Amino acid sequence: MTTRRAPKPSPFPPEDAMASFSVEEVLRVEEVGRYRFLVGRRNEMLDDICTLAKGLFAAHHAAVSLVGERDLWLLTPEPDAPTSLPRSETFCSRTILGDDVVVSNRADADPAMARFWAQCRDEIQFYAGAPLTMAEGSNVGALCILDRKRRTFGDGDREHLHKLAVLAANELQRQRTLLELRDQQALVSQAAALARVGSWDLNFATGTIAWSEEMYRILRMDPARPPLTPEEFADRMVEPADREWLANAMQNAVSESRAIQIVVADGTRRWINLIGEVEHVDGVAVRMLGSIQDVTELHEGRVQIERLAYRDSLTGLPNRALFTKQFQLEIEQARIQGTKVGLILLDLDHFKDVNDTLGHDAGDVLLQSVAERMTRAYRRTDTVARLGGDEFAIILPDIRGAEDMTRPTEVLMALLRHPVEHGDKVFTISASVGGAVYPSDDDNAAQLLKSADIALYEAKAAGRNRMVTYKPAMRAIVEQRMEMLREVRLGLSRQEFVLYYQPVVNIAPEAVTGLEALMRWNHPARGLLPPDAFMAAFEHQDLAAALCDVTLDGALSQMRAWIEQDVPFGRVAINVSAAQFRAPDLADLVERRLRHWGVPANRLTIEVTENVYMGWGSDVVGNTVRRLHDSGVLIALDDFGTGYASLANLKQFPIDRLKIDKSFVQNIDDQAIVRAVITLGASLGMKVVAEGVEGLDQLAFLERSGCDQVQGYHFARPMPGAEVPAFLRRFAAGDEIARSA
Ligand code: C2E
Ligand code: CA
Ligand code: CA
């Protein structure tokens, strides 16, 4: 102890030599601060040490002092002793500067002692003090004895005083540790309360269990009640599904952490994290210490975040992020188990138009209703996700083959046919669907997605409102089609598209009543191409509009010319594809072009196919059709019988002509259908036109069945406009009939 502190100041250094700014002094003052809590409090052990010192040395007073920066505090059982004095005037302030016991018989010369003496109404002559050296090395104060008389203080006395000082220092240290421990415990329990962690201690040998306060709070139990045994806890609070796990964990003394839902004493549901740690002695489990944490808010927050991050807020369906995750998982699962997974991509047909024309509210309602129908059509184990906008995807795990995708999709399509009501509006929607199967089509998630996308593209190109299942050959077809569309764009800029005209002949009396304008592509390398070679262009968003202009302007400029040349062409029918028909303001466009070319509306017929009327927003299409019809344009329903429309569906639209598809006309087995369509058309006041009449027998049959008009190679193939006047002249003269007879 004597060697620990390097500079050994003399017992009575002058006051101004006190190293109040040394690092040691700063550390010491800081250290003293840790014991200040003892000032003004009674401490039995320190009191005993003082009493012991007083008796041992037969002194008048004994005290423990703490020396701060400016003050000195006295800890002593003496009733009259002051608690604090100015430090500078005390012997103790000198004692703390060294390691040795300081003794003085001139204590009365000390001004502070004099005051102390005055306060104690006592004459003090003698002082002896031993420094209190703490574990950190600082002297925080002294143990001192005071006497009224001068006395001798031998080495033995010094030794004893020193030992007592060590005892006092130890007691200070102990008190401090206790305090810190109490603080820590308070912190721990505060932290436990804040973190909502309750702990329990289960003794396996005795079967007793102890709970922390927080444990009671979390479980909403009266703290006066005894803690529940693990079995009672399981029975009363744990959900049956988790009971087995809990029992097992307890029985096998397994340390495990798990989040479970419990029903606490007041009946509310909470989520807790449960963890237990088993203590072994000689390989035997003796005790299980565990804690539960109330994570309800955390859990609910997570669920909420999960919902926000993984759910589409409009429909509540999984979003793209969750779809991607789930899709990868399902593929992985299928790879391991050797099962098949179906993937469906679904696009609503012309959804953009619904939004544009009926408003976003209607669009939202529609999306919600589609989402709801989708969840109804597919299995509960299937994942129906909204990828964004009007794009949906369905993952169908564990299917046997493509049929397992097709069947529910047909159900969905049927559900979609039921109109959606919103405010005073009623509208329908259709969907284009592409499907692909893992692993038969492709063997990774990305490839499968691409395959389904190609199939979807096919479904759209084939006229939408249908499902197409991916076949490997489609990939090449898609690539070819992309190339074709690129070429069409080029061909449009080079004005390679022209119209040919095919006569429409009235059966009785036999006369040409009009012409149908059919597009041809004067391809620089491949020659004259029929629309088959570029059909997809009619449904391609930009190209469709450009081709529509070609048809409209081509036909109208031709009609203008024929009108001026007095060519009796009757009317001209133009074909308008679904994509072209749904272009905004088609009615406007047609009216403008009619005016521009000075062609009366009643000389124009517009041919549309059933799929124009099917699907979404029939009221928008209806408006366009009605406007055109009201302005005098005739409306013909083309390819009747090939689509899904029933005449009942179409009754709401003004339709003047019904064109029976050539596949029926040319198939002898379909004669009954042809007759039925003719009868139906007649009963609805429509004229019926039969297409693809190639032979006299067909013509005879149609005539017998009451068909009004025909079109076909029997009379003429489509021809360039320049050949029409001559044809009409020959026909009127009876030449053509003579030729084909
Ligand atoms: P569509 O409207 O059904 O036209 C009738 C098709 O039948 C024409 O084929 C015509 O050449 C063909 N055809 C006429 N009589 C006979 C016959 O006796 N036997 C056989 N086998 N075929 C006959 P085309 O010209 O190849 O046109 C195909 C389709 O392309 C048209 O079918 C129409 O849907 C579309 N299309 C043609 N021009 C246009 C156009 O300007 N705009 C739009 N949107 N589509 C057009
Ligand atoms: Ca047509
Ligand atoms: Ca047709």
Please report the first level of CATH classification, the CATH class of the largest domain: Alpha Beta
Discrete helix count? 26
Query: Quick one: CATH superfamily of the largest domain?
Result: EAL domain
* Fraction in beta strands: 15-25%
Q: Kindly provide the radius of gyration, computed on alpha-carbon positions and rounded to a whole number of angstroms.
A: 51 Å
Residue share in helix:
40-55%
Give the uncertain stretches in residue-range form. Answer: 1-20
- Helix-strand makeup class: alpha+beta
Kindly report the average pLDDT value: 86
Number of strands: 28
Which architecture of the largest domain does the CATH hierarchy give at level 2? Alpha-Beta Barrel
For the record, give the distance between the C-alpha atoms at the N and C termini, rounded to a whole number: 138 Å
Q: Please summarize the sheet with the most strands.
A: 8 strands, mixed, barrel
Identify the overall geometry. rod-shaped
Number of domains: 4
Tell me the strand order in the biggest sheet: 19-20-22-23-24-25-26-27
Predict the CATH topology of the largest domain.
TIM Barrel
Bound heterogens, unique: ligand C2E, calcium ion
